[in-house]
Amino acid sequence: MKLLLLVATTTLLSLLARPARAQNPTPEQLVQQQVDGWNAHDAAAFAAPYADTTALYIYPNQVLKRFKTHDDLQAYYASLFKANPRLHCEVANKMVLKNTVILHEKITGLANRPDSQSLVIYRVEQGKIVSVRFVLD
C-alpha cells in the first residue's frame, strides 16, 4: 500500500512540475502583437507574428507590397518607424472570425500626411499573418 501511495504521489508531483505546454497564440493575439509593436516603434516585435512571405493589398486584390522575406518586412517597417516618430495606431473596433481579424484602425503621426482610418483585414494561416488588406477611407 505504501509503495502504491509513493508511486501515485511521485507521478502526481512529476505532472505538476512539468511546465505547461505553450499554447499557440490566437489570430487575435497575433494581430494585437503587431499593433503593440507598431505603437512601440519596434520593427522586430511588429514583424514577429508575420509569415516569412507576406503581401499587403488595397482591398480586394490590388497588390500594395510583397515581402519575400521576414527581414524585408522588418527593414521596411523599421524605416517607416524611424521616419515617423509620432506614428500611432488606435484600434477603434475589432471583429474576429476564425483565422480572419478585421480592425477599424485610426492612424496618426504619418509625416506630411493627414490622419487616416481604414478597415484592415488580417489573414492568419499556420500561426502567422500571411496577408493584410486595407479598405481605405
TrEMBL record:
Family annotation (InterPro entries): NTF2-like_dom_sf (IPR032710), SnoaL-like (IPR037401)
Pfam families tied to this protein: SnoaL_2 (PF12680)
Signal peptide region: 1-22
Coiled coil: none
Superkingdom field: Bacteria
Keywords: Signal
Name this protein carries in UniProt: Nuclear transport factor 2 family protein
Organism listed in the record: Hymenobacter cyanobacteriorum
